[in-house]
Write a structure and sequence with these properties.
The protein is an alpha/beta fold and 232 residues long. The protein is built from nine helices and eight strands. The model has no long low-confidence stretch (mean pLDDT 96). The structure holds N-acetylmannosamine-6-phosphate. Its EC number is 5.1.3.9.
């Protein structure tokens, strides 16, 4: 997945595209356009995607939409891994988790059941990323920068967090999965809305760039255009 684009295909409660078949088709369309990986949410969507795409899938579940809601418990992680994802994305912040386990215990518990599945920590800051590395995660994501209260929500990616995480991942002692000599991969995710931003993320050292809304959320994209037209 190095140097490649991952496309996040997610629809939200109440939306017309919230349907596993639809999301699987969107994932297929993204792969046809060059996505080297897919990120998906919800067990039914993940199972449907697994049937039609062979690129790596980053799977997650969302439980609510505040606090720790991205694959919050060990049981959620196991359920996501059971769908056949190569990577499980989970909340990688330092906040208390609803099942009372630490991030390290969650990672260890998942590894015990699924030794080959990689763990992507969705972090909100460089401080989160440091703690996530210590907890043994395989991949750092900037996913939650601007969503945890620790950082301002920037227009576009939070470049300060991107740079900080890339530096952290490349620092001495921070090494990738067992036996690998690569720095820990940093996936830049969150408000990457333009091709220029995606390219900039790679220039700044991102291993991969994850784009969701700007590719797979027609309601948001339509709103951007509608507002521009209305303001003209
Ligand atoms: C904060 C949060 O819950 N992020 C979620 C994580 O899976 C998704 O809602 C985002 O769409 C995804 O991260 C991709 O980001 P963007 O849609 O901005 O390209």
């Amino acid at each position: 997945m190095r140097g490649g684009l991952v496309v996040s295909c997610q629809a939200y409660p109440g939306e017309p595209m919230l349907d596993p078949r639809t999301m699987a088709q969107v994932a297929q369309a993204a792969v046809a356009g060059g996505a080297v990986g897919i990120r998906g949410k919800g067990l039914d969507d993940l199972r449907a995607m697994r049937e039609v795409v062979s690129v790596p899938i980053i799977g997650l579940v969302k439980v609510g939409d505040t606090g720790v809601y991205i694959t919050p418990t060990l049981a959620d992680c196991i359920a996501v891994a059971e769908t056949g994802c190569e990577i499980v994305a989970l909340d990688g912040t330092r906040r208390p988790r609803p099942d009372g386990l630490s991030l390290a215990e969650t990672v260890a518990g998942l590894r015990e059941r699924f030794p080959d599945v990689l763990v992507m920590a969705d972090c909100g800051s460089v401080g989160d990323a440091e703690a996530a590395l210590a907890a043994g995660v395989d991949i750092l994501g900037t996913t939650l920068a601007g969503y945890t209260g620790e950082r301002e929500k920037t227009d576009g990616p939070d470049w300060e967090v991107v740079d900080g995480m890339v530096a952290l991942a490349g620092s001495a002692g921070a090494r990738g999965p067992a036996g690998s000599d690569c720095p820990v991969p940093v996936f830049v995710e969150g408000r990457v809305h333009t091709t220029a931003q995606a390219a900039e993320a790679v220039r700044r050292g991102a291993w991969s760039v994850v784009v969701g809304t700007a590719i797979t959320h027609p309601t948001s994209i339509t709103r951007w255009f509608a507002e521009a037209v209305a303001a003209a």
